[in-house]
Amino acid sequence: MHRFDHYLVFILLTLGGGLLIGLINLPDEWYQSLSKPWFTPPNRLFGPVWTILYILIGIAGARTYARSRRSPVMTSWIAQLVLNFAWSPAFFGLRSPSLGLMIIIPLLLLILAFIGLSWKRDLISAVLFMPYAVWVAYATALNAAIVALN
User: What residue intervals traverse the membrane (predicted)?
Assistant: First the structure.
């Protein structure tokens, strides 16, 4: 497979998977009825932010795959994506902010592990994950606040 093909596959996997899971698990009346903290962003912000983040995640995944397919850094990339894709079904699908919190905390740790493991090998991939880490740290605080308020 050519390098461009790797990028295309990884971007389609992350973006397509994320969009599909997001469409299947849209916030509904239940979510609207929850008490939320003052720092809750407007719903219209999530789609554009996640679209950008999934593209960055896909690029970092393709770069990592091309450099070290069987490595702890690739394992952390795969594991974070699994947890990323599990969060919406847990939080929205099962209507369980507590389960969402139990997923998002290890997700954040895996994102940080990916950054740490990539730092010396592939600084670009590490940097591509930084906005993702910031967003998931924010989402973790939001998730924890929703658990506390409800």
Answer: 7-26, 46-66, 73-92, 98-119, 126-149
